[in-house]
Structures are given as structure tokens and as C-alpha cells.
Automatic annotation (TrEMBL):
UniProt source species: Seriola dumerili
Lineage: superkingdom: Eukaryota
Protein name: Dehydrogenase/reductase (SDR family) member 7Cb
Keyword Metal-binding appears in the UniProt entry: no
Keywords linked to the UniProt accession: Membrane, NAD, NADP, Oxidoreductase, Signal, Transmembrane, Transmembrane helix
Family: Belongs to the short-chain dehydrogenases/reductases (SDR) family.
Residues passing through the membrane, by range: 6-23
């Protein structure tokens, strides 16, 4: 006698949930084993995304080299990573002062990074400088600063570690970019230009080094939703804003989600990832297949924002 549908459906749901849970556990275990003993460089380790990445890769047994512009923050991150860690399962991170706005220091930085372990298995370029302003109000000096941090810095570091990767015929270079490296948005001219340049550089690099067994990945994400990040001591809580909260829920990506995507991209050696919700994805399609319509929508949006500021 066949079981009724009302009995079979819950059983199927329970079985599916069980399979999904087992699959996630297997993937999580493989994620840790795949990065174990790997030398991983994170350029802006003290940022929200960088800190999440540091914790994930450290738990996985990677040999971390953490870069940042603030030594005190790097030491604080070092303490948080090592305080509860098992020294038999993890390695104490190496700390390096890394400031892409100081391009003259890059040669010394590359030497210091390579001296830590003699090689780099995974380079995660996570640094970024943002700016929102009308084009006519942005100075040339600011344009250059943004290009240094978002383009020249990552490209210089990638070039610096590339010879050792080529000689070992292995390595992974990952750029945490932005959806604006593929889609320009008004009032983000310098930022979008730097991200477009970085996207093009790493696309070219991917093709040139494939023959050496080196993987180059880019992750294009929407803006970082830091609304769930813990507040620093003494920092006032932000005022509630229903519109902003709705916008972040719809379009933003949390640092923990992006960090997990970075880990999965390294493990699965994916070459390009777009981490965005439907609206930016639709805009990308319009940019390719119907650019006049997208341009009209963006121009209308600029007029609306100007009118809102005048009211």
C-alpha cells in the first residue's frame, strides 16, 4: 500500500535537509584541508572583510602574512587569532606594514613578504579606497591616490610575487574587486576607473600565466554591508534609517559572506565570481546588450539626486 502524499513530502524534505547538511559539512572540511600549510597573503587584513578572511584561513591551518597600514590594529588582530588557537593546528601569522598609497615602499614590502616563508601560494588583494563626489570636484591628486591604492598597489604586489610562482609553477592571485569594475556608476568616477583598470590588468594576467599553472581570480561584489559589524569601544550607534536598512538588505554583501566566497574561490580555483543581487546583474546585461537604455536610466538618476539635494 502506497504512502499518502502528505506523509511522503515531509520525509523527502527531511532527507533533502540531511543531504544538504552533510554536503555543507564535507565542503567545510575540504575548505580547511585545502588551505592547510599554504602561504596566504591578505593585503588589508584589518578591514572587515580582511579580518573575516584572516580568521577563516587561520582556522584552516594556513601560514598567514597579514598586511595593513596600522601596526596596532595588526597586533590586535594577531592577538585575536592566536589567543584561542591550537599551536599544533595553526601557525602564528606574520605581520607586514603595507600601504599602497606609498608606492615607493612596494619593493621593500615585496622583499619582506617573500622573506617570511620564501614563497607565496595565495595572494589576496583586498585593499580599496572609495570616493563619492562629482567629477569636477575631484582633484588630480585624489585621482592618483585612488589609482595607487586600487590599481597600482595590487598590480605591483602581484608582479612582485609572480616570479616565485612562475618558478614553482603554482600559485593563486585573487583580486577582491567591485561590481563597479564592470559597471560605472555616477559620482564614483575615480573609484570606478581604478576598479576598471584593476579588472583589465588581472584579466590580462590570467591569460598570460595560465601556462605556468597559476590561477587568477576576480570577485566583483556590491558594496560592503557593515551594519552588522561590532562597534568599536566608545563608538556611538548609528541612527536608524529604514530606507538605508532596506537598501543594504537588498544590495549589500556582509563581510562574512564575502570572506566565505573568497575561501571557496581559492579552494575551487574559480576564475571569476560576481557576488551581486539581481538589480546589478540586470544592469550588467543592459550595459552589454542595450547600453542606451542604461545610460538614460543613469542620467535620470543623476537628475533625481540633484533635485533631491535642492529640496
Amino acid at each position: 500500500m502506497a504512502l499518502p502524499f502528505v506523509v511522503v513530502l515531509p520525509l523527502l524534505i527531511v532527507v533533502a535537509a540531511g543531504v544538504y547538511y552533510i554536503y555543507n559539512e564535507v565542503i567545510r572540511f575540504m575548505s580547511k584541508s585545502l588551505v592547510r600549510n599554504k602561504v596566504v597573503v591578505i593585503t588589508d587584513a584589518v578591514s572587515g572583510v580582511g579580518t573575516e578572511c584572516a580568521h577563516l584561513f587561520h582556522k584552516g591551518g594556513a601560514r598567514l602574512i597579514l598586511g595593513g597600514t596600522n601596526w596596532d590594529k595588526l597586533e590586535s588582530l594577531f592577538d585575536s587569532l592566536t589567543s584561542d588557537a591550537d599551536p599544533r593546528e595553526t601557525f602564528a601569522p606574520k605581520l607586514v606594514i603595507l600601504d599602497f598609497s606609498d608606492m615607493d615602499s612596494m619593493e621593500d614590502v615585496v622583499s619582506e613578504v617573500l622573506e617570511c616563508y620564501g614563497c607565496v601560494d595565495v595572494l589576496i588583494c583586498n585593499s580599496s579606497m572609495k570616493l563619492k563626489a562629482p567629477i569636477q570636484s575631484v582633484s588630480l591628486e585624489m585621482d592618483r591616490n585612488i589609482m595607487d591604492v586600487n590599481y597600482f598597489g595590487p598590480s605591483a604586489l602581484a608582479k612582485g610575487v609572480l616570479p616565485t610562482m612562475i618558478s614553482r609553477r603554482s600559485g593563486h592571485i585573487l583580486l577582491v574587486n567591485s561590481i563597479q569594475g564592470r559597471l560605472a556608476v555616477p559620482f564614483r568616477s575615480s573609484y570606478a576607473a581604478s576598479k576598471h583598470a584593476a579588472q583589465a590588468f588581472f584579466d590580462c594576467l590570467r591569460a598570460e600565466v595560465e601556462e605556468y599553472g597559476i590561477v587568477v581570480s576576480t570577485i566583483s561584489h556590491t558594496f560592503i554591508d557593515a551594519s552588522h559589524q561590532p562597534l568599536a569601544a566608545g563608538e556611538p550607534a548609528p541612527k536608524p534609517n529604514a530606507l538605508a536598512a532596506c537598501d543594504q538588505l537588498t544590495h549589500g554583501v556582509r563581510p562574512s559572506v564575502l570572506a566565505n566566497e573568497i575561501l571557496q574561490t581559492v579552494n575551487r580555483k574559480r576564475k571569476e565570481v560576481v557576488l551581486a543581487h539581481p538589480i546589478p546583474r540586470v544592469a550588467l546585461c543592459l550595459r552589454s546588450f542595450c547600453p542606451p537604455f542604461l545610460f538614460a536610466v543613469l542620467a535620470a538618476g543623476v537628475k533625481d539626486s540633484v533635485l533631491a539635494e535642492q529640496m
